[in-house]
Amino acid sequence: MSAGLRIAADKETGVAVVTLDRPARLNAVDLPTAAELTSCWRELRYDDSVRAVVLTGAGERAFCTGLDRDAHVPQPNSPYMMDDPLLRIGPKANDLWKPVIAAVRGMACGGAFYLLGESEFVVADTTAVFFDPHTTYGMVSAYESAYMAHRMPYGEAARMALMGTAERISARRAYEAGLVSELTDPGGALEAALRCAAVVASYPQEAVQGTVRALWAAKEAALARSFAQAPGLIALGNLPAERQAELFARRRTAGFRLR
């Protein structure tokens, strides 16, 4: 893997750690890293020594802040054909049915929800904050909101999507809302996630992977319907790219509300 992604596997425990490794960019996903994530999940399908995965981000400031703003993604001139570079960055999108546990420290926002939405559960430390900036910058939160509506009560997911950058959900509130399953002291999320992964990796894998598949089956039909509508909603609702850039350039660096 390149500098955008690191994979370390412990053959004794059967746990692999996949780390987004772009801390200078707050672990935002550029196009090469998106391709690496797709390749990573597909390779792990064939590695029988890996029985569980922990997904995390490098550094202390962010788990992931979504698609890198400098990534240039050409789009067809049609609302029925839209290229989203993040649609294939998650494990389920690549047919991986080994359990994935996310360990979150710092910011998790926007496109990070593609990864959190396809993880089995989320462990976070008390520095974690969650928010969705789309509406602030004139963009429709379509895929992200669909994922979060299956991880949180509807009102919480709607509030996060609609409030944009004006409000961030604290780790404590995310835990209370069910997005986070375990809350740790600062810096403790990775260790806690590794403990959980080691336990799951020690169980018979046919049963574990069958359970992962059954859990995903409970929501994949609804997600598929939401995703089918997403391209049209984005084409209709997104401001032109240059207008989005203007709003982003005027973004506030402070003044958000933490709850």
From TrEMBL:
InterPro entries: ClpP/crotonase-like_dom_sf (IPR029045), Enoyl-CoA_hydra/iso (IPR001753). CDD domains: crotonase-like. It comes from the Bacteria. PANTHER family: ENOYL-COA HYDRATASE, IP11341P-RELATED. Belongs to the enoyl-CoA hydratase/isomerase family. This is Enoyl-CoA hydratase/isomerase family protein. It comes from Streptomyces lannensis.
